[in-house]
Amino acid sequence: MEQKPLARKTGLVTQEMPDELLIYDMGSKKAHCLNSTAAFVWNSCDGNTSIDDIASSLERMTGKSVQKDIVVLALEELSKNNLLDGEDIGLPSGMSRREVLRRVGIAAAVAIPVVASLAVPSNVMAATSGVAPGGPCVDPVDCQSGACLGSPGTCL
Question: Which pLDDT belongs to residue 124?
Fold first, then answer.
């Protein structure tokens, strides 16, 4: 059966930025930064669109050749970071991330999907000075929690 991944939407705060998407997971207190390729894949995961269709859409958007392996790699990263709902999507059986990157090639036409994650301290662990959660910020140091979503943005 063809996989049709579904992006997790509950318990997340998202902020679109130029060339990236910031996602804060309120449950795990982790912030994730998705590059443009990973963000496109996550936004395409509506539960109705197949992996092949996501690759075709990415190809149309970029105007460059996109291998299905790029989408699979992005889905594996998103799944590993609990940003997808439903079944775990992993690399094809017996295949490592290194092997996928080798198949895609060093000079891939599209950026390799990257999901960078960071644990955000809870308010108890945060400094007592600074802007409270929900207040305005420009930089993470402005916030009690040390996490600013966007610039200008909101303290988490």
Answer: 47
